[in-house]
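Chapter review: from sequence to fold.
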Amino acid sequence: MLDCHCRIRAEVDHVLGDKQDITWEDLDRLEYVHAVFKETLRLFPVAPATVREVKNEETLDGVRIPGGTPLMVSTTSEFQDLFSRERERDKQTERQTDKDRDECLKHNERG
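The token string follows.
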């Protein structure tokens, strides 16, 4: 936690320095700060659940799910579990950078 705080402070000091007027371009350069926000929202999502529709028939743990079936996923129970949080907390912020996001998008496009 302290390492994360130190990195944020160093990035803010480097990018903004003593500036009084901060621009959108300045904010765009705060890459690690953005990553911390994204990781925080992943672990502690604002919405308690999300609904998705299964496009094609799938089988999940031996249960057949027909295409067109709406599925509700609880984001709070998934990411609030203490065991998961302990396992997930180690250096996950870095995966929220643009480079990692782009790699994830490429992977998802391949299916």
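Two observations follow directly from the output. The longest helix spans residues 2-16. Residues 11 and 95 are 17 Å apart (CA to CA).
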